[in-house]
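Bumping with the actual sequence this time:
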Amino acid sequence: MQLPNCLVVMFLACAMAVCPVQAKDTQDTISKKEAVQLATTKQPGKTLKISLEGDFYVVRILQSDGRIIDVKVHKVTGEVKKD
């Protein structure tokens, strides 16, 4: 049985809050899977595509009303921004 997405995201957020931020050259990046989970928590829908643009993952999401949106997730901090 899978945990609901909200529990997974809450776990990730807590884990990220506990880990101290390091210097840029030694920072770990979040995975594509984690980026998708963060993006779809903020903007629910079906993930169509994920790409990397600079310091951000761009997650393309098909919403239930048929609109397609791009959500940016910072690859180090996990900050989510609607494009």
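The tokens above came from a reply further down the thread. Residues 21-26 have pLDDT under 50 and may be disordered.
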